[in-house]
Amino acid sequence: MHTRRTALLAAPGLLLLLTAFLVPSAAMLLAPPGVGTGEILERLGDMLSNAYDLRIIGRTVGIGLVVTVVCVGLGFPIAYLLARSTSRWSGMLLALAIFPLLLSNVVRTYGWLVVLGSNGAVGQLLTGLGMVDKAPQLLYTDLAIVLGLTQLFLPLAVVSCYSAVAQIDAGLDEAARGLGARRMRTFWDVVVPLSAPGIVIAATLVFAGSATAYTTPYLLGGSRHRMLSTQLYSYSSVTIDWASASATALIMTVLVFAVSGLSSLAARRGRTS
Amino acid sequence: MNSRHPVAASLAVAGYVIMIVPLLFVMATAFTAGNTLRFPPEGFSTRWFGAALANEPFVSALFGSLQLAFLATLLALLIGVPATLAIHRGRLPGKALVEGLFLSPLVVPELVLGLALYQQLVIGLRMDNFQVLLLGHTVLLLPYAVRVTGASLALVDGQVEEAARGLGASPLRAFLTVTLPLLRPGIFSAGLLAFITSFNNVPLSLLLQSFEFRTLPVTMLDYVQQNYNPMVAAVSTLVLAATVLVAVLAERTVGFARIFGGINQ
Question: Where is the ABC transmembrane type-1 domain (chain A) (predicted)?
Fold first, then answer.
């Protein structure tokens, strides 16, 4: 195809991206209506130094890291067992792990209100068994947010790890075993290093998703367990504080970009070494 | 699951419990006869399904969400498929940069994009909420359209189209009668993925909602915050049932794991 005709094919998309994505995003981050860039930087400096905002940033990064570790820790074993299984159920189980990706986040998160709520399943079970007198506060805690985000992002971890494990020749496992390595040793010394690229992708996707998710901290964290996402929403729709909204958006964007950058750096290192 | 790997098997079971069990509780609660969200449910009834289907805000939100998802998917495909051809088949300067641009909406947090569109286009330029929402959803779906169609295009032999051209077909005719039919499964997968992504979206739909237009997920979030009855459990169960139907449709046509997992089996 000629260059000019090719450019015409891509032009509508580039125009849309420019006018409904790049320009508005840059304008929002640097110069919101009636707010100077200096004011945003000042607010940014303030957020990075006062205890209230630092706790929200810390909670966002901390919850993101915990959810990443849990999702990879549970998702990798699922992917490994499914990829190595010869059972006729493994296809069904893989579909069951991918299916939640299609399902609304609101529907998935709503389940935890029924499980963790004050009249919910866990509380009723504990009081019913006489283990506690009064149902403990489970909803509107950091634990509830971690559980909700794990449910949301585990399918993504399974998918990324599965593609990686499925590419490893199962003969390598057997070779290591044949040379006398025990199952655990084979797993840690052969399977895990060979699927490292998939694990890095899984961790990046899960962290970026869970550190910026809105529905879960909104429904399960309540008003006291704020994350950057719920803060951003209240600055932009409740208090209409454009300087704080832009500063928060800047922190969220930099956080996600930094993690993606680190992960592609790690991937490049892995390829050259 | 597997007796040779007891540790991995117990972690895997824990993973499935976290992914699936909350959904079972949603379904069980939807059939309660009681008035509050509690477990175990008080009696059995389908009255909350009746109440949900008779609830005007939920019904109009459902039709609004379907309309938005349909229009945004159509736009994303109309814009994204030609762009994919340009990226993979054309002689485009800075090809990698252009592809990166089309995929870039995936990297920016959706809430940040939503705020940018709300502040700059709705408030700044006084554009209509629904138009901006449609543009925003289209931007969000473009990466899916470009990536999924691109993966499918990579499997199509470019020489087939060249052959058609050699036999005297015009470029447009060669594309329409040769390449497009071969791309159909890819475009169908991209469309399905885009439709579901738009239908389920919260951040953009939340920030760009108006009195006249609200999507189903946003209406559900709002209702949960203000009421403590199981209506949303019934709505969720209906959404779950519809999603299972879509999954079965996807499995029968192109293969479920291939579309949604990006897994090539």
Answer: 57-263
